[in-house]
Amino acid sequence: MAKSRLKGFQVAVLASAALFGTGMVVAQAPAPASVHGHANDPAGLPLRNVVVEFSKDHSGELKDRKWVYKFTTDDNGDFKGTGIEPGDYFLDLAQNDKNLDFIESSKFVAGEDKLVNFDLTRKEYIDKMTPEEKAQLEAYKKNAGAAAEANKVIANLNATLKTVRADLAAAAPHHDDVSKDVTSMKSAVDAKPDEGLLWVTYGETLQAQGDHLAAADRAAGKVPTSDDDVMKNYTDSAAAFKKGADLMAASKKPVPADEAVAYNSIGNTLAKAGKIEDAQAAYENAVKLDPTKAGMFYGNEAAVLFNTNQMKPALAAAEKAIAADPTRPDPYFIKGQALIGDATVDPKTQKPTAPPGCIEAYQKYLELAPDGRSAATVKEILAGFDVKIDTKYKAGKK
Q1: From CA 232, how far away is CA 269, in angstroms rounded?
Q2: Domain 156-289 listed as CATH 1.25.40.10
Q3: What are phi and psi of 104, to 5 degrees?
Q4: Is CATH 2.60.40.10 correct for 33-129?
Q5: What is the C-alpha separation between 257 and 236, in angstroms, rounded?
Q6: Do strands 69-72 and 113-115 pair parallel, antiparallel, or not at all (unpaired)?
Q7: How many Å apart are CA 141 and CA 45, to the nearest integer?
Q8: Strand pairing partners for 54?
Q9: Which string of DSSP letters, residue by residue, matches 116-160?
Q10: SS3 state of residue 74
Q11: Best CA proximity match to 320, nearest among 349, 296, 344
Q12: Whose CA is closest to 269, among 286, 253, 251?
């Protein structure tokens, strides 16, 4: 009898084990929803940094409602959000705590990525505006449209500048034809004639095209300054640079250094046209506008005068360049060349004697540019005066 009772007890225990082994079924929370959308104002432009607010309260003052989710639009007027509990929400579009628009009821279901847009151009929204607000909207649309067109023009001009600058850099080594860039920049200055930078770049294209035609003339044995097309390009280039400089000077925030660059370019292009005195005046203007670059401007003036065999003025400009920036090698070479013409021959030894400062200028050139384009010439001249050349100069120093 006892054995029978024990057997029954075992059955009961086994039954209990089976009951607990199946585990309990736990209810899972529904998957959250998400939202994405766009907001634009009555003119159709994106509403930036406005807030899309979610509340389960569908009545009462907006200021008294509890906002459970808030998502902010980006610069494109777009917004998105995640982790939204499924349910029916009142959606509010607010800017600086001021209501702009709302959606009375928007239902979100589990796992849904819902599209919600706030389009303030819709008829229902416009109809609720006061006459004053509608008038303001029309004026806003007009101004915004003009601004959009202006921005479009600027974007196109920036793209043109980028292309032209790349073309000029590629064409420079071999003086390639850049007539298409001249045409592009002419259109650019016509589109925005009050922008100094455009005129300066236009001047650069005209100068580069003049260089192209001049190179062809030299290859054909023709003097470039006798070519009307060459001279027109250079003359028009100088005029464009001057226009750019004038516009820069008249701007609200003039930058003298930029004006100086324009005047330096005027000097360069007038020199190529053979108008040396005008070129000198341009370089002097550049120095006045930006004395920090006087070494470069005076150096350019010295080179122009030297290349036209005007040695005394070239020497004066080279001295100014050296005083302003003693690290630039070319003015030393020009100084030496300008002085070498005054060398004499000692009647007793029949050896050449260089004028004061000449040998020192050549030596300084080699010190600064031992591998410079004029280094071989300088070494030959110094050897003719029995001057020992310092071999300790570091190659590559400019």
Answers
A1: 11
A2: yes
A3: -65, -40
A4: yes
A5: 23
A6: unpaired
A7: 9
A8: 69, 91
A9: --EETTSHHHHHTS-HHHHHHHHHHHHHHHHHHHHHHHHHHHHHH
A10: coil
A11: 296
A12: 286
Contacts of 33 (CB under 8 A, 6+ apart): 84, 85, 86, 108, 109, 110, 111, 112, 113, 114
pLDDT at 27 (0 to 100): 62
* CA gap 339, 358 in Å, rounded: 6
Domain regions of the chain by residue span:
33-129, 156-289, 294-398
CATH, domain range 294-398: 1.25.40.10
pLDDT of residue 397 exceeding 50: no
Structure tokens at 134: 């509608």
100-117 per-position pLDDT tens digit: 999 999 999 999 999 999
Q: How far apart are CA 75 and CA 77, in angstroms?
A: 5
Do 156-289 and 33-129 fall under one CATH topology? no
138-155 average pLDDT score: 78
Strands 352-353 and 344-345 come out as antiparallel
| Strand pairing category for 51-55 and 352-353 | unpaired
Q: What is the CA angle 117-118-124, rounded to 5?
A: 125
